[in-house]
Amino acid sequence: MSLTSHHEARSLSGAAADVTTKAARRRSYLGTLRRQPAVLLALVPALTFFCAFWLLPFTRLVAMGMQPDKNSGMIAYWAVVAQPQYLYSLLWTLLVSIGVSLLAVATAGVAGFFLARNRFRGKAMLVAMLTFPLAFPGVVVGFLVIMLGGRQGALAQFSMLLFGERWMFAYSLAGLFVGYLYFSIPRVITTVMAACEKLDVSLEEAARSLGAGTWRVTRDVIVPALSPALISTGAICFATSMGAFGTAFTLGTRMSVLPLSIYSEFTNYANFTMAAALSVTLGVITWIALSFARRLAGGSLGASA
Amino acid sequence: MSSSIAITLKQCGRTFASGHTALEPIDLRVEAGETLVLLGPSGCGKTTTLRLIGGLETPDPGGRVWFGERDVTALPIEKRDVGMVFQNYALFPNMNVTDNIAYGLRIRRLSAGEVRRRVDEVMEMVGLHDFARRGVDELSGGQKQRVALARAIAVRPKVLLFDEPLSALDAKLRDRLRLEIGTLLRRLGTTAVYVTHDQAEAMALGDRVAVMERGRIAQIGSPREIYHQPHSAFVADFIGSVNRIAIGGTRDGWLEVDGGRLFCPRLHGADHAYCRPEDIEVGDPASAPISGRVVQSFFLGQSQRLLVDTGGDAPLQVEAPARRQWRRGEAIGLSVASDALFHPHHPLTFGQAAAHG
Ligand SMILES: Nc1ncnc2c1ncn2[C@@H]1O[C@H](COP(=O)(O)OP(=O)(O)OP(=O)(O)O)[C@@H](O)[C@H]1O
Ligand SMILES: [Mg+2]
After folding, report:
1. Residue B107 and residue A3: Cβ atoms within 8 Å?
2. Would the CB of B216 count as within 6 Å of ligand 1?
3. Chain A residues with CB-CB distance to B161 below 8 A
4. What CATH superfamily classification does A76-302 receive?
């Protein structure tokens, strides 16, 4: 049996032709923009908005961070990494956020896959309940954690009854962790469920026909196919946790996470320079995570990457 | 090949949770080494049958599936040792061509050297030797299906299952791959079930063809039997084109039909006679037993298809030599040999089939 292949060669060059026409279409679109000043005129409100509410304040913020910090005298950006209180705040926030994202992706990823694949009574209800926390602001999430693990929380009352001592975790790092996990899980579940809908079942069937059991199918087919969704939803959880303010504020955790540091530099010490430098640092880290997520979700890397 | 096995389905039906019966309980046997084609219109249950054999569906209670002497009804697909080829290729996008083909071999824990040897062997068989390192999204549709085929045969499965593997390809490539698959199946001698809705594919590939209609097997037999001795108007119509000629009356072995008469004592008492367009012969309008007028002609290259009005409800389809040209409205004479006429419910054309009557 021999190979092809005028035919297939032709279909390949057909794909190339397709790319060329796309490029041509894009060119003509730019051409339209250039030829019609009216189109540019229509962009003016958007540009104004962009400059007034984003570009100007952000430029000022960035510039402000270049100034020396009034306590240490260092350039504020440098102080972020050189001054222990800021560096620890940054590192702890990173650590908690990464930990939360990984745990959320692992647990809620499995849950989302299970929910997408199985039908049972009360499923719609369960999904609604699991995704309900999305509707809560951080303050309420913090409040819920206190209800569970605070001084008067369910756990404290329970342990008081059994062992005569109050167990609580709400005000420690664990409380923060639980709170962040709480609002990360629904995001992961919804994303993973949506991604599961798009899985190509015949890939799993092909793998099984070749002898792959559940574990191999999961490892070789499902996880690779879901990985763009898992990575992107993980990155979004990470970004959300990095910037979460309400939960941390409500819990009043001793360890000050980055958003709280910004808040207290700003309001308690009127140290605008430091607040600016911390904000920009937070913004850049979050932005990197989000653009990473967007690239994967947009499928530019695709399942084959 | 001596190692091939027969497949037996006993009373296998499939009703889905929705209450829809995709497959009535059927009995089916695929002989060892045979290629059985499941043919039928969309939604008739071909894929469901194939998936029952593969173990991707379980039959309704009472149904049993046997591979040789072994009852495999309860075995999931990964334990059945079947190779599957899908319409959409189903290649693993995160693996290159070699890794796709080697997948089943690695699961079977063959040594690296053995894996390489077997991969090379099947790549050679399907004509893919130059593509080993390619990613699967760098292949054309035809190449993808070759990889899928190689992946399925690499593990030397007991049974090969194909679900419309060529439907996504263009006509020319389809013809070519169909021939290649046919050659390969004969060479391997593996028992195979092949689903298609393309009758030409069914004829070319099947040792036997099962024509399915609404969850039932309407007829099963060799391509020749199915084509020349259809048991029902549905089968006759689904495979190839067929003319349905109304019989007005019969006398001395002659059937009175629109535009003239046909000699066929066998069909005495029937209300209709059927015949294939290529079995109608074109002759002189003055002497032929049936006369009519050409309504339309379609040039097909190797022949032409004429529509001839003989005064009946529908014009007759006639396959005529390509060279001769007819004008619209031109008179034409037709005749049909006695043994080319058939009726599903009357004794059939060829001797050995009389038992079916
Ligand atoms: N998972 C399912 N749940 C409910 N109904 C189904 C399911 N799978 C198939 N069916 C129905 O069963 C019938 C037979 O389906 P099947 O896929 O076997 O048809 P098919 O002959 O392969 O058709 P096609 O040529 O379109 O692939 C169809 O009416 C289909 O709608
Ligand atoms: Mg089908």
Report:
1. no
2. no
3. 209
4. MetI-like (1.10.3720.10)
How many DSSP H helices and E strands does chain B contain?
8, 19
Q: Which residue reads 């059994």 in tokens?
A: A162
| Cα angle A65-A70-A72, degrees, rounded to a multiple of 5 | 95
Q: Outline which parts of chain B fall under CATH 2.40.50.140.
A: 243-340
DSSP string, B302-323: SSEEEEEE-SSSSPEEEEE-SS
Instruction: Give chain A's radius of gyration (CA, Å).
Output: 25
CATH superfamily of B7-237: P-loop containing nucleotide triphosphate hydrolases (3.40.50.300)
A225·B155 Cβ contact <8 A: no
B44 ligand 1 Cβ < 6 A: yes
Nearest CA in chain A to B180: A1
Closest-CA distance of chain B to residue A25, Å: 24
Q: What are phi and psi of B194, to 5 degrees?
A: -130, 120
Q: Is B62 exposed, middle or buried (0-12, 13-18, 19+ CB in 10 A)?
A: exposed
Tens-binned pLDDT, residue by residue, of chain B (357 aa): 447 899 999 999 999 989 999 999 999 999 999 999 999 999 999 999 999 999 999 999 999 999 999 999 999 999 999 999 999 999 999 999 999 999 999 999 999 999 999 999 999 988 888 888 889 999 999 999 999 999 999 999 999 999 999 998 888 889 999 999 999 999 999 999 999 999 989 999 999 999 999 999 999 999 999 998 888 888 988 888 889 999 988 888 888 899 888 888 888 888 888 899 999 999 888 889 999 999 999 999 889 999 999 988 889 999 999 888 889 999 999 999 988 888 877 644 443 333 333
Domain boundaries, given as residue ranges, for chain A: 20-64, 76-302
Q: Supply the CATH classification number for the domain B243-340.
A: 2.40.50.140
